[in-house]
């Protein structure tokens, strides 16, 4: 009788845990992380060492931007020593989002120890190196990732930005040209290639790229300023003044100052 009672109690706990898991997953998938967290924590109360629930709870905290709590739950998940790749990856992401890039790099390295072809670990490790100004290490990580997956376009874009920061113009252009050729991340690729052309004093090329980026929806104060500067360098003041008029919609004071300086015939 006692044995039957234990089996029945175990069955009840298992069913309750499964119910909370299913409801938590539904809420998580719908973006309701608070309710998802409630159900995952209820499941943990029934089964405190449940690896999946520890991880899911950590993911909820991460999505809710409560990174310290997420790290604490990932710690518990790592302590269980099951599926360490995703646990280290999750904790690394949380450190990265918290701005603790050195700790993030360590965790992404640990994730790669268990899965040396994990694309997310390579990508976030590269971003962490980049944020920490370790440009050579970032470049190496991006390049390793692109060897695994040449179509990882976010990695290619960020490597292009990295090359541009280091004034490796030809390599930067190669990455941005690749994105444009493949029609990926176009507004960012055109904008950044335009900056390179501007630095090379290829003002027509820069204007073309800034205009393409604007036509794709990348319209802001910075790009209008840069395109206007190119127009001024080509003595096309009227077109520069049109950009300054549009700039005034984003920064009225700056726009008016530039209109007064370069555009006597324009009404303010």
Describe the overall structure.
The chain has 268 residues and is mainly α. Among the domains are: 50 residues, no CATH class; 42 residues, no CATH class. It is 79% helix and 0% strand. The protein is built from 15 helices and no strands. Helix 5 packs parallel to helix 7, helix 6 runs antiparallel to helix 7 and helix 12 runs antiparallel to helix 13. The protein is elongated and about 75 Å long. The N terminus is likely disordered.
Name its key features:
disordered N terminus; elongated; 79% helix; 15 helices; 268 residues; 0% strand; mainly alpha
Secondary-structure map:
Blueprint: H1 2-29, H2 33-46, H3 51-63, H4 67-79, H5 84-98, H6 101-114, H7 119-131, H8 135-148, H9 153-165, H10 169-181, H11 186-199, H12 203-215, H13 221-233, H14 237-247, H15 252-262
Could you spell the SSE succession in H and E letters?
HHHHHHHHHHHHHHH
**Radius of gyration over alpha carbons?**
26 Å
**Unreliable runs:** 1-15
Note the gap between the termini.
91 Å
Beta-strand percent range: under 5%
Average pLDDT rating: 91
Helical segment tally? Answer: 15
């Amino acid at each position: 009788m006692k044995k039957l009672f234990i089996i029945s109690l175990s069955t009840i706990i298992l069913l309750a845990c499964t119910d909370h898991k299913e409801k938590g997953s539904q809420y998580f998938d719908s973006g309701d992380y608070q309710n998802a967290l409630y159900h995952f924590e209820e499941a943990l109360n029934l089964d405190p060492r449940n690896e999946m629930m520890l991880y899911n709870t950590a993911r909820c905290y991460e999505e809710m931007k409560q990174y310290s709590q997420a790290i604490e739950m990932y710690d518990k998940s790592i302590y269980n020593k099951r599926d360490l790749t995703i646990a280290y990856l999750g904790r690394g992401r949380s450190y990265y989002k918290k701005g603790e890039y050195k700790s993030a790099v360590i965790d992404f390295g640990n994730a790669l120890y268990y899965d040396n072809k994990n694309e997310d670990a390579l990508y976030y490790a590269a971003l962490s190196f980049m944020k920490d100004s370790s440009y050579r290490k970032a470049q190496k990580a991006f390049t390793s990732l692109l060897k695994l997956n040449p179509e990882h376009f976010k990695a290619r874009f960020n490597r292009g930005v990295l090359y541009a920061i280091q004034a490796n113009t030809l390599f930067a252009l190669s990455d941005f040209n690749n994105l444009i050729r493949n029609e990926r991340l176009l507004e960012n690729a055109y904008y950044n290639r335009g900056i390179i052309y501007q630095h090379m004093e290829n003002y027509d090329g820069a204007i073309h790229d800034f205009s393409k980026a604007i036509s794709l929806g990348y319209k802001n104060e910075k790009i209008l300023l840069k395109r206007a500067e190119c127009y001024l360098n080509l003595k096309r003041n009227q077109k520069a003044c049109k950009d300054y008029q549009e700039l005034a919609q984003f920064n009225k004071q700056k726009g008016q100052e530039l209109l007064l300086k370069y555009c006597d015939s324009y009404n303010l």
